[in-house]
Amino acid sequence: MSFVSKIKHLLNWKESQKPHINLNTDLYLQLKPLRLPLILTVLLIMLGSLGYMAIDNFSLMDAIYQTGITFTTVGYGEIAPISDMGRIFTITLIIVGFGVFSFSIGILIEVINKGDLLRILKERNMLYKVARLTNHFVIFYQNSYTIELSKQFRENHIPFVVVDDLENLEQIANTYSYPYYLRTNPQSNSAILKAHLSSAKGAISLSANIAENIALISIIRLYEKEIKRKKPFQIMTYASSTEDIEKLKKLGADNVISPAKLLAQRISAVSVRPDMQNILEEFLYKKDTPLDIEEIKIPEYSWIRLKKIKEAKFRNRLNVSIVGIRDRHGKFTAIPNGDTLITSGATLLVIGSSKNISLTKQYINKKQKPVQLKETNV
Protein backbone atom coordinates (compact mmCIF):
# COMPACT_ATOMS: atom_id res chain seq x y z
CA MET A 1 0.00 0.00 0.00
CA SER A 2 1.41 3.38 -1.02
CA PHE A 3 1.88 6.26 1.40
CA VAL A 4 -1.05 8.17 -0.16
CA SER A 5 -3.27 5.08 0.13
CA LYS A 6 -2.34 4.69 3.79
CA ILE A 7 -3.26 8.31 4.50
CA LYS A 8 -6.61 7.89 2.73
CA HIS A 9 -7.27 4.69 4.69
CA LEU A 10 -6.34 6.41 7.97
CA LEU A 11 -8.69 9.32 7.25
CA ASN A 12 -11.41 6.95 5.97
CA TRP A 13 -11.33 8.92 2.73
CA LYS A 14 -13.43 7.23 0.07
CA GLU A 15 -13.09 8.33 -3.51
CA SER A 16 -16.35 9.37 -5.13
CA GLN A 17 -17.94 6.86 -7.43
CA LYS A 18 -17.54 7.42 -11.15
CA PRO A 19 -20.28 6.62 -13.68
CA HIS A 20 -20.01 3.42 -15.72
CA ILE A 21 -20.67 5.55 -18.82
CA ASN A 22 -19.11 9.04 -18.76
CA LEU A 23 -19.90 10.20 -22.35
CA ASN A 24 -16.28 11.27 -22.90
CA THR A 25 -16.35 9.80 -26.41
CA ASP A 26 -19.56 11.66 -27.31
CA LEU A 27 -18.12 14.87 -25.89
CA TYR A 28 -14.94 14.44 -27.93
CA LEU A 29 -16.95 13.95 -31.13
CA GLN A 30 -18.83 17.19 -30.45
CA LEU A 31 -15.63 19.14 -29.81
CA LYS A 32 -13.78 17.52 -32.71
CA PRO A 33 -14.73 20.29 -35.24
CA LEU A 34 -12.96 22.82 -33.00
CA ARG A 35 -9.59 21.13 -33.50
CA LEU A 36 -8.86 22.89 -36.82
CA PRO A 37 -9.51 26.45 -35.50
CA LEU A 38 -7.37 25.68 -32.45
CA ILE A 39 -4.51 24.36 -34.60
CA LEU A 40 -4.73 27.37 -36.94
CA THR A 41 -4.66 29.76 -33.94
CA VAL A 42 -1.56 28.09 -32.47
CA LEU A 43 0.22 28.06 -35.85
CA LEU A 44 -0.62 31.72 -36.44
CA ILE A 45 0.81 32.73 -33.06
CA MET A 46 3.98 30.70 -33.75
CA LEU A 47 4.46 32.18 -37.25
CA GLY A 48 3.72 35.70 -36.02
CA SER A 49 6.24 35.39 -33.18
CA LEU A 50 8.93 34.01 -35.49
CA GLY A 51 8.17 36.79 -38.01
CA TYR A 52 8.68 39.61 -35.48
CA MET A 53 11.82 37.94 -34.14
CA ALA A 54 13.25 37.61 -37.68
CA ILE A 55 12.16 40.99 -39.10
CA ASP A 56 12.64 43.38 -36.15
CA ASN A 57 14.75 41.33 -33.73
CA PHE A 58 12.07 41.18 -31.04
CA SER A 59 12.75 39.05 -27.95
CA LEU A 60 10.66 35.89 -27.63
CA MET A 61 8.23 37.34 -25.07
CA ASP A 62 7.91 40.67 -26.93
CA ALA A 63 7.26 38.77 -30.17
CA ILE A 64 4.55 36.59 -28.57
CA TYR A 65 2.93 39.63 -26.92
CA GLN A 66 2.97 41.67 -30.15
CA THR A 67 1.49 38.73 -32.07
CA GLY A 68 -1.22 38.31 -29.47
CA ILE A 69 -2.41 41.93 -29.47
CA THR A 70 -2.19 42.05 -33.26
CA PHE A 71 -4.07 38.77 -33.76
CA THR A 72 -6.87 39.81 -31.39
CA THR A 73 -6.94 43.39 -32.79
CA VAL A 74 -7.16 44.95 -29.31
CA GLY A 75 -5.44 48.12 -30.56
CA TYR A 76 -2.66 48.46 -28.00
CA GLY A 77 -0.24 49.60 -30.71
CA GLU A 78 3.41 48.72 -31.17
CA ILE A 79 5.43 47.78 -28.08
CA ALA A 80 8.69 48.66 -29.92
CA PRO A 81 9.58 50.42 -33.16
CA ILE A 82 8.63 48.30 -36.18
CA SER A 83 10.18 48.59 -39.65
CA ASP A 84 8.19 49.04 -42.85
CA MET A 85 8.55 45.33 -43.54
CA GLY A 86 7.34 44.68 -39.99
CA ARG A 87 4.27 46.83 -40.58
CA ILE A 88 3.44 44.97 -43.79
CA PHE A 89 3.84 41.75 -41.84
CA THR A 90 1.53 43.16 -39.12
CA ILE A 91 -1.17 44.08 -41.65
CA THR A 92 -0.98 40.58 -43.12
CA LEU A 93 -1.19 39.09 -39.63
CA ILE A 94 -4.28 41.17 -38.82
CA ILE A 95 -6.08 40.08 -42.01
CA VAL A 96 -5.21 36.41 -41.59
CA GLY A 97 -5.97 36.55 -37.86
CA PHE A 98 -9.38 38.10 -38.47
CA GLY A 99 -10.13 35.32 -40.96
CA VAL A 100 -9.11 32.58 -38.52
CA PHE A 101 -11.10 34.27 -35.72
CA SER A 102 -14.25 34.53 -37.88
CA PHE A 103 -13.82 30.93 -39.05
CA SER A 104 -13.47 29.73 -35.43
CA ILE A 105 -16.53 31.65 -34.22
CA GLY A 106 -18.58 30.24 -37.10
CA ILE A 107 -17.68 26.66 -36.20
CA LEU A 108 -18.30 27.27 -32.49
CA ILE A 109 -21.77 28.71 -33.18
CA GLU A 110 -22.57 25.77 -35.46
CA VAL A 111 -21.60 23.26 -32.75
CA ILE A 112 -23.68 25.06 -30.13
CA ASN A 113 -26.71 25.48 -32.41
CA LYS A 114 -26.91 21.74 -32.96
CA GLY A 115 -27.80 21.43 -29.27
CA ASP A 116 -25.97 18.13 -28.80
CA LEU A 117 -23.03 19.67 -26.95
CA LEU A 118 -25.16 21.26 -24.23
CA ARG A 119 -27.29 18.12 -23.99
CA ILE A 120 -24.23 15.91 -23.53
CA LEU A 121 -22.74 18.26 -20.94
CA LYS A 122 -26.02 18.23 -18.96
CA GLU A 123 -26.32 14.45 -19.18
CA ARG A 124 -22.68 13.97 -18.23
CA ASN A 125 -23.18 16.14 -15.15
CA MET A 126 -26.28 14.11 -14.25
CA LEU A 127 -24.38 10.82 -14.64
CA TYR A 128 -21.76 11.93 -12.12
CA LYS A 129 -24.52 12.90 -9.67
CA VAL A 130 -26.27 9.55 -10.09
CA ALA A 131 -22.98 7.69 -9.60
CA ARG A 132 -22.76 9.11 -6.07
CA LEU A 133 -26.10 7.54 -5.07
CA THR A 134 -26.30 4.34 -3.02
CA ASN A 135 -29.32 2.24 -2.06
CA HIS A 136 -31.47 4.21 -4.48
CA PHE A 137 -34.37 3.02 -6.62
CA VAL A 138 -34.37 3.18 -10.41
CA ILE A 139 -37.85 3.99 -11.70
CA PHE A 140 -38.27 2.88 -15.31
CA TYR A 141 -40.93 4.57 -17.47
CA GLN A 142 -42.56 7.93 -16.83
CA ASN A 143 -46.31 8.18 -16.31
CA SER A 144 -48.87 9.36 -13.75
CA TYR A 145 -47.79 6.62 -11.31
CA THR A 146 -44.21 7.84 -11.52
CA ILE A 147 -45.30 11.36 -10.59
CA GLU A 148 -47.18 10.20 -7.49
CA LEU A 149 -44.43 7.78 -6.48
CA SER A 150 -41.78 10.48 -6.78
CA LYS A 151 -43.75 12.67 -4.34
CA GLN A 152 -43.82 9.88 -1.76
CA PHE A 153 -40.12 9.13 -2.25
CA ARG A 154 -39.15 12.78 -1.82
CA GLU A 155 -41.25 13.13 1.33
CA ASN A 156 -39.61 10.04 2.82
CA HIS A 157 -36.10 10.99 1.64
CA ILE A 158 -35.72 7.91 -0.57
CA PRO A 159 -33.24 8.54 -3.43
CA PHE A 160 -34.44 7.63 -6.91
CA VAL A 161 -33.64 8.00 -10.61
CA VAL A 162 -36.30 8.19 -13.34
CA VAL A 163 -35.38 6.57 -16.66
CA ASP A 164 -37.34 6.96 -19.90
CA ASP A 165 -36.68 7.97 -23.50
CA LEU A 166 -39.39 10.65 -23.71
CA GLU A 167 -38.29 13.76 -25.60
CA ASN A 168 -39.83 16.05 -22.97
CA LEU A 169 -38.43 14.15 -19.96
CA GLU A 170 -36.36 17.15 -18.86
CA GLN A 171 -39.44 19.38 -18.85
CA ILE A 172 -41.41 16.76 -16.88
CA ALA A 173 -38.54 16.37 -14.41
CA ASN A 174 -38.40 20.11 -13.81
CA THR A 175 -42.18 20.33 -13.41
CA TYR A 176 -42.42 17.51 -10.86
CA SER A 177 -39.05 18.09 -9.17
CA TYR A 178 -37.27 14.86 -10.11
CA PRO A 179 -33.77 15.28 -8.62
CA TYR A 180 -32.24 12.70 -10.98
CA TYR A 181 -33.44 11.61 -14.43
CA LEU A 182 -31.95 10.02 -17.52
CA ARG A 183 -33.32 10.14 -21.03
CA THR A 184 -32.49 6.76 -22.54
CA ASN A 185 -34.24 3.55 -23.61
CA PRO A 186 -35.17 1.74 -20.34
CA GLN A 187 -34.51 -1.67 -21.88
CA SER A 188 -31.01 -0.82 -23.13
CA ASN A 189 -27.78 -1.86 -21.49
CA SER A 190 -26.76 1.80 -21.27
CA ALA A 191 -29.84 2.53 -19.11
CA ILE A 192 -28.69 -0.05 -16.54
CA LEU A 193 -25.17 1.39 -16.50
CA LYS A 194 -26.15 5.06 -16.55
CA ALA A 195 -28.59 4.59 -13.66
CA HIS A 196 -25.76 2.96 -11.67
CA LEU A 197 -28.00 0.00 -10.89
CA SER A 198 -25.04 -1.88 -9.40
CA SER A 199 -25.22 0.31 -6.27
CA ALA A 200 -29.04 0.59 -6.21
CA LYS A 201 -31.40 -1.08 -3.78
CA GLY A 202 -33.85 -2.05 -6.48
CA ALA A 203 -35.79 -1.20 -9.60
CA ILE A 204 -39.41 -0.25 -10.29
CA SER A 205 -41.00 -0.78 -13.70
CA LEU A 206 -44.24 1.17 -14.21
CA SER A 207 -45.01 0.52 -17.86
CA ALA A 208 -48.65 -0.17 -18.75
CA ASN A 209 -47.35 -2.74 -21.24
CA ILE A 210 -46.69 -6.06 -19.51
CA ALA A 211 -44.22 -7.09 -22.23
CA GLU A 212 -42.00 -4.13 -21.33
CA ASN A 213 -42.16 -5.03 -17.64
CA ILE A 214 -41.29 -8.66 -18.41
CA ALA A 215 -38.32 -7.61 -20.54
CA LEU A 216 -37.04 -5.27 -17.85
CA ILE A 217 -37.29 -7.90 -15.11
CA SER A 218 -35.30 -10.34 -17.26
CA ILE A 219 -32.63 -7.73 -18.04
CA ILE A 220 -32.20 -6.81 -14.38
CA ARG A 221 -31.99 -10.42 -13.17
CA LEU A 222 -29.41 -11.22 -15.86
CA TYR A 223 -27.39 -8.16 -14.87
CA GLU A 224 -27.63 -9.27 -11.25
CA LYS A 225 -25.96 -12.57 -12.17
CA GLU A 226 -23.41 -10.83 -14.40
CA ILE A 227 -22.08 -8.62 -11.59
CA LYS A 228 -22.40 -11.51 -9.09
CA ARG A 229 -24.42 -9.40 -6.68
CA LYS A 230 -24.73 -11.01 -3.26
CA LYS A 231 -28.00 -9.34 -2.29
CA PRO A 232 -30.66 -9.57 -5.03
CA PHE A 233 -32.23 -6.43 -6.42
CA GLN A 234 -35.68 -5.61 -5.09
CA ILE A 235 -37.87 -5.49 -8.18
CA MET A 236 -41.36 -3.97 -8.09
CA THR A 237 -43.65 -3.59 -11.04
CA TYR A 238 -47.17 -2.85 -12.21
CA ALA A 239 -49.86 -5.17 -13.59
CA SER A 240 -53.46 -4.69 -14.61
CA SER A 241 -54.81 -8.19 -13.98
CA THR A 242 -54.40 -11.14 -11.60
CA GLU A 243 -53.04 -13.26 -14.45
CA ASP A 244 -50.34 -10.69 -15.18
CA ILE A 245 -49.42 -10.50 -11.48
CA GLU A 246 -48.69 -14.24 -11.41
CA LYS A 247 -46.63 -14.04 -14.60
CA LEU A 248 -44.46 -11.22 -13.34
CA LYS A 249 -43.87 -12.89 -9.97
CA LYS A 250 -42.81 -16.15 -11.64
CA LEU A 251 -40.35 -14.21 -13.83
CA GLY A 252 -38.62 -12.64 -10.83
CA ALA A 253 -40.62 -9.64 -9.57
CA ASP A 254 -40.62 -9.35 -5.78
CA ASN A 255 -43.76 -7.23 -5.62
CA VAL A 256 -46.42 -6.65 -8.27
CA ILE A 257 -48.98 -3.91 -7.68
CA SER A 258 -52.37 -3.88 -9.38
CA PRO A 259 -54.04 -0.46 -8.91
CA ALA A 260 -57.52 -1.90 -9.50
CA LYS A 261 -57.03 -4.69 -6.95
CA LEU A 262 -55.37 -2.34 -4.47
CA LEU A 263 -58.23 0.15 -4.75
CA ALA A 264 -60.85 -2.59 -4.26
CA GLN A 265 -59.05 -3.95 -1.18
CA ARG A 266 -58.71 -0.47 0.30
CA ILE A 267 -62.39 0.39 -0.20
CA SER A 268 -63.46 -3.01 1.14
CA ALA A 269 -61.32 -2.62 4.27
CA VAL A 270 -62.59 0.89 4.94
CA SER A 271 -66.21 -0.19 4.31
CA VAL A 272 -66.00 -2.95 6.90
CA ARG A 273 -63.81 -0.99 9.35
CA PRO A 274 -64.06 2.79 8.77
CA ASP A 275 -61.20 3.51 11.16
CA MET A 276 -58.90 1.43 8.94
CA GLN A 277 -58.38 4.51 6.75
CA ASN A 278 -56.62 6.38 9.57
CA ILE A 279 -54.55 3.33 10.50
CA LEU A 280 -53.34 2.87 6.92
CA GLU A 281 -52.47 6.53 6.63
CA GLU A 282 -50.52 6.38 9.90
CA PHE A 283 -48.51 3.28 9.04
CA LEU A 284 -48.01 3.48 5.31
CA TYR A 285 -48.10 7.03 4.07
CA LYS A 286 -47.20 9.53 6.79
CA LYS A 287 -43.60 10.55 7.12
CA ASP A 288 -41.93 10.84 10.52
CA THR A 289 -44.57 8.56 12.06
CA PRO A 290 -43.61 7.22 15.53
CA LEU A 291 -44.60 3.71 14.44
CA ASP A 292 -43.37 1.52 11.63
CA ILE A 293 -44.23 -1.91 10.27
CA GLU A 294 -41.74 -4.23 8.60
CA GLU A 295 -41.16 -7.85 7.61
CA ILE A 296 -38.09 -9.58 9.07
CA LYS A 297 -36.94 -12.93 7.69
CA ILE A 298 -35.50 -15.52 10.08
CA PRO A 299 -32.06 -16.70 8.85
CA GLU A 300 -30.93 -20.34 9.12
CA TYR A 301 -28.31 -19.50 11.76
CA SER A 302 -30.54 -17.41 14.05
CA TRP A 303 -30.61 -18.39 17.73
CA ILE A 304 -34.36 -17.79 17.71
CA ARG A 305 -35.00 -20.57 15.20
CA LEU A 306 -37.32 -23.37 16.48
CA LYS A 307 -38.30 -21.33 19.54
CA LYS A 308 -41.73 -20.07 20.51
CA ILE A 309 -42.62 -16.39 20.16
CA LYS A 310 -43.10 -16.01 23.92
CA GLU A 311 -39.56 -17.30 24.53
CA ALA A 312 -38.09 -14.43 22.49
CA LYS A 313 -39.93 -11.85 24.64
CA PHE A 314 -40.05 -9.29 21.84
CA ARG A 315 -42.39 -6.93 23.70
CA ASN A 316 -40.49 -6.95 27.00
CA ARG A 317 -37.01 -6.74 25.50
CA LEU A 318 -37.52 -4.66 22.39
CA ASN A 319 -40.94 -3.04 22.77
CA VAL A 320 -42.19 -4.41 19.43
CA SER A 321 -45.19 -6.58 18.60
CA ILE A 322 -45.43 -9.56 16.27
CA VAL A 323 -48.71 -9.12 14.38
CA GLY A 324 -48.16 -11.81 11.79
CA ILE A 325 -45.92 -14.69 10.76
CA ARG A 326 -45.48 -16.31 7.35
CA ASP A 327 -43.78 -19.72 7.11
CA ARG A 328 -41.41 -20.69 4.32
CA HIS A 329 -44.29 -22.24 2.38
CA GLY A 330 -46.20 -18.95 2.28
CA LYS A 331 -48.85 -19.72 4.92
CA PHE A 332 -49.68 -16.54 6.85
CA THR A 333 -50.91 -16.46 10.45
CA ALA A 334 -52.31 -13.17 11.73
CA ILE A 335 -51.86 -12.20 15.41
CA PRO A 336 -49.99 -15.40 16.34
CA ASN A 337 -50.14 -16.50 19.98
CA GLY A 338 -47.09 -16.91 22.18
CA ASP A 339 -46.89 -20.66 21.54
CA THR A 340 -46.42 -20.22 17.78
CA LEU A 341 -43.12 -21.80 16.68
CA ILE A 342 -40.61 -19.66 14.78
CA THR A 343 -39.07 -21.77 12.03
CA SER A 344 -36.09 -20.99 9.79
CA GLY A 345 -37.10 -19.20 6.61
CA ALA A 346 -40.20 -17.77 8.28
CA THR A 347 -40.98 -14.06 8.09
CA LEU A 348 -42.19 -12.01 11.04
CA LEU A 349 -44.45 -8.99 10.58
CA VAL A 350 -43.26 -6.55 13.25
CA ILE A 351 -44.78 -3.28 14.51
CA GLY A 352 -42.83 -0.76 16.57
CA SER A 353 -40.65 2.31 16.28
CA SER A 354 -38.04 2.39 13.52
CA LYS A 355 -35.27 2.28 16.13
CA ASN A 356 -36.72 -0.74 17.91
CA ILE A 357 -37.36 -2.60 14.65
CA SER A 358 -33.71 -2.04 13.74
CA LEU A 359 -32.68 -3.49 17.13
CA THR A 360 -35.04 -6.43 16.52
CA LYS A 361 -33.21 -7.24 13.26
CA GLN A 362 -29.89 -7.31 15.13
CA TYR A 363 -31.51 -9.40 17.87
CA ILE A 364 -32.80 -11.98 15.38
CA ASN A 365 -29.61 -12.12 13.29
CA LYS A 366 -27.39 -13.17 16.20
CA LYS A 367 -26.17 -16.78 16.34
CA GLN A 368 -26.16 -16.87 20.14
CA LYS A 369 -28.88 -15.65 22.47
CA PRO A 370 -28.00 -12.05 23.44
CA VAL A 371 -27.61 -11.38 27.14
CA GLN A 372 -27.06 -7.61 27.13
CA LEU A 373 -30.78 -6.80 26.76
CA LYS A 374 -32.58 -6.67 30.07
CA GLU A 375 -36.21 -7.49 30.71
CA THR A 376 -37.38 -3.92 30.17
CA ASN A 377 -38.61 -1.66 27.42
CA VAL A 378 -35.95 -0.27 25.08
How is this structure best described in words?
By secondary structure, the protein is α/β, with parallel strands linked by helices. The chain has 16 helices and 12 strands. Strands 3-2-1-4-5-6 form a 6-stranded parallel sheet, sandwiched between helices. It has a 4-stranded antiparallel sheet with strand order 7-12-9-10. It has a two-stranded antiparallel ribbon with strand order 8-11. The longest helix has 31 residues, at 84-114.
Keywords:
four-stranded antiparallel β-sheet; 3 domains; 16 helices; 378 residues; alpha/beta; Rossmann fold; disordered C terminus; Alpha-Beta Plaits
Brief overview:
This protein has 16 helices and twelve strands. Helix 8 links the parallel strand 2 and strand 3.
The biggest beta sheet reads:
6 strands, parallel
Number of helices: 16
Average pLDDT across residues?
83
Radius of gyration: 33 Å
Structural class: alpha/beta
Report the principal-axis shape: elongated
- Using DSSP, what is the number of strands? 12
Main sheet: which strands, in order across? Answer: 3-2-1-4-5-6
Write the H/E string, N to C: HHHHHHEHEHEHEHEHEHHEEHHEEEEH
Number of domains: 3
CATH topology of the largest domain: Helix Hairpins
Any low-confidence stretches, pLDDT <50, length ≥5? Answer: 374-378
Strand content: 5-15%
CATH class of the largest domain: Mainly Alpha
Helix content: 40-55%
The CATH level-2 architecture of the largest domain is identified as: Orthogonal Bundle
Distance between the ends: 44 Å
